[in-house]
């Protein structure tokens, strides 16, 4: 309900609205209101009060609360839809993540979620928020890599009218918007050095000023950051502030790659089939065992996101009600054969048995070593050869205590 009139005039419309539509929750959208006017609006029956002009995120949240008034009273629905219970997986790796989320959700400590692209870092951040006491307040995601540096400051801190060219009105930022809730800073490694300094102060004091403003604003929010890069390595190179890294890395959580939680692939496929059946109005009942075997052998460099995209494609293009070999993209058939050949060539299981984890680790170390040799130890090229990112390759080299020689040119390619 826009406010061109007084609170009293708008309140007089309540009986007519209620007689026509039943009890209708109304939001009070006011142009430059006084504090007393805002308080009066809430006292007189308005469900929400919003200052006009308002950021899109604020309007969306108010509309969401009006359409679902129970959301502010209980976090149970949020937990069911976006908490740990909404995540899929039974492997040891993902169960460890679930356990850690439940253990730390009600603390306000900063969390750093790290892992390859497509591993579900934002889902982990959402689960942390919706399992916590902040679940009824906003979860505000910000992709630091998708917003140009000169705009990111305004996005995070907000700006005052006239702060810069085209700043024709005051705008609140994501930190202010997230009061009582959680801010999720994705791709934190892409943040400029200048903004890293400002973020450090926010983490220390939970206080900031809008761009072009002098009034200090306080906001109570939790920060969860995510990265697909090795921030420790970034610190060593001077690309990321060491003090900020320590502030962010209070509680680190690794989002495991899909190839390390292979047992979850059938569960994820089933979930995605059900989702896309509903979204695309399809009736896929399952997939052939041969298809599942091929998908289990594929290394999934794009992780869960790649699996989701592949299942969506297969569901849309399937001619029958069952996914068959013909529905698979060609690259998965070729990739599955290459992986199967490499893993089984010249190998026999000894009668006394063996340690599967040790054999897999030895095999992985051998392949990494071969890739490094073929690329003259240029990690960027070796990582591309193995279909993993550079950070993952370096972490595995450390795990296997492989003597890392300096790259001939760290910036090569």
The domain tally reads: 4
Q: Any idea what the shape is?
A: globular
β-strand amount:
5-15%
What is the count of β-strands?
14
Biggest β-sheet description: 5 strands, parallel
**What is the mean predicted local confidence, pLDDT?**
80
The helicity comes to: 40-55%
Strand arrangement within the widest β-sheet reads 5-8-11-4-12
Characterization of the model:
With 413 residues, the chain is α/β, with parallel strands linked by helices. It folds into four domains: 2-52, no CATH class; 76-256, Rossmann fold (3-Layer(aba) Sandwich); 259-344, Helicase, Ruva Protein, domain 3 (Orthogonal Bundle), CATH 1.10.8; 356-399, Arc Repressor Mutant, subunit A, CATH 1.10.10. The chain has helices at 7-11, 14-21, 35-43, 56-67, 76-82, 92-104, 121-130, 149-157, 174-177, 193-205, 231-236, 242-248, 265-280, 289-297, 303-317, 330-344, 356-374, 379-386, 390-399, and strands spanning 2-3, 27-31, 48-52, 111-114, 139-143, 158-159, 171-172, 182-186, 207-209, 216-218, 222-227, 251-254, 286-287, 322-323. It has a five-stranded parallel β-sheet with strand order 5-8-11-4-12. A three-stranded parallel β-sheet has the order 1-2-3, sandwiched between helices. Strands 6-7 form a two-stranded antiparallel ribbon. The longest helix is centred in the C-terminal third of the chain and has 19 residues, at 356-374. The chain is globular.
């Amino acid at each position: 309900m826009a406010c061109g009139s007084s609170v009293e005039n708008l309140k007089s419309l309540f009986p007519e609205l209620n007689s026509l539509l039943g009890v209708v929750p109304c939001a009070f959208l006011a142009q430059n209101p006084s504090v007393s006017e805002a308080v009066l609006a809430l006292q007189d029956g308005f469900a929400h009060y919003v200052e006009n002009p308002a950021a899109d995120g604020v309007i969306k949240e108010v509309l969401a609360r009006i359409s679902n008034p129970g959301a502010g009273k209980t976090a149970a629905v949020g937990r069911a839809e976006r908490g740990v219970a909404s995540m899929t997986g039974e492997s040891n790796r993902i169960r460890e993540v679930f356990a850690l989320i439940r253990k730390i959700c009600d603390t306000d400590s900063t969390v750093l979620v790290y892992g390859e692209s497509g591993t579900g870092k934002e889902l982990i951040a959402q689960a942390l928020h919706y399992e916590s006491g902040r679940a009824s307040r906003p979860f505000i995601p910000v992709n630091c890599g998708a917003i140009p540096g000169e705009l990111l400051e305004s996005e995070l801190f907000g700006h005052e009218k006239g702060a810069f060219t085209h700043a024709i009105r005051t705008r609140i930022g994501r930190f202010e918007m997230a009061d009582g809730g959680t801010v999720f800073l994705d791709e934190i490694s892409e943040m400029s050095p200048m903004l890293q300094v400002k973020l450090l102060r926010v983490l220390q004091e939970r206080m900031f000023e809008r761009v072009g403003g002098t009034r200090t604003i306080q906001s109570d929010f939790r920060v969860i950051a995510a990265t697909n890069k090795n921030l420790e390595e970034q610190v060593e190179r001077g690309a990321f502030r060491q003090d900020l890294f320590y502030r962010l890395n209070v509680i680190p959580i690794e989002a495991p790659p899909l190839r390390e939680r292979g047992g979850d692939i059938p569960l994820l496929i089933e979930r995605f089939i059900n989702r896309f059946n509903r979204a695309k109005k399809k009736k896929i009942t399952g997939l052939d065992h041969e298809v599942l075997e091929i998908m289990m052998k594929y290394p999934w460099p794009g992780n869960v996101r790649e699996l989701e995209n592949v299942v969506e494609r297969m569901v849309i293009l399937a001619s029958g009600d069952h996914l068959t070999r013909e529905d698979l993209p060609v690259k998965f058939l070729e990739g599955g054969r290459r992986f199967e050949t490499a893993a089984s060539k010249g190998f026999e299981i000894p009668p006394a048995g063996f340690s599967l984890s040790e054999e897999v680790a030895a095999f992985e170390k051998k392949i990494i070593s071969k890739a490094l040799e073929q690329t003259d130890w240029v990690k960027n090229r070796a990582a591309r050869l193995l279909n993993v990112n550079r950070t993952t390759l370096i972490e595995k080299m450390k795990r296997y205590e492989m003597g890392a020689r300096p790259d001939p040119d760290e910036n090569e390619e």
